[in-house]
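Methods — Computational structure assignment.
A single polypeptide chain was analysed. Its primary sequence is given first, followed by the predicted tertiary structure written as structure tokens.
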Amino acid sequence: MKTMSQLLEKQSVRSERLPRLFRSRTVDYTLLVVGVLVAAFGAWTYLVPAGWVLAGLSAAWYLGSWIAGGVLLTAGFGLLGASVRDRSGYWTAGAVTSLLLATLALAGAVTAAVLLIT
């Protein structure tokens, strides 16, 4: 025999949900900062005047710095976009923008690699 509260209770299927695991964004921001610094070093060695100490560096230095910086920025923006997406539970403008920037950074790194090869 069912009681009145059991009859009035809405039938629902309950499934056990695992708790969301949020990680710290320290790695994301560290990759972004190091990537910007490495890419900035590449830009500096490209634009340095001929009379300076590092002016004699070959094209491999600045192109290699742009490649490394682009790869680091790709990893940083990709992790940041995934973290934003995981925390909100759906695609937000911040997550899409971060992943778009990761794609652009990867495109820049590939372009620098093609220039270095040719």
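Note: The radius of gyration is 24 Å.
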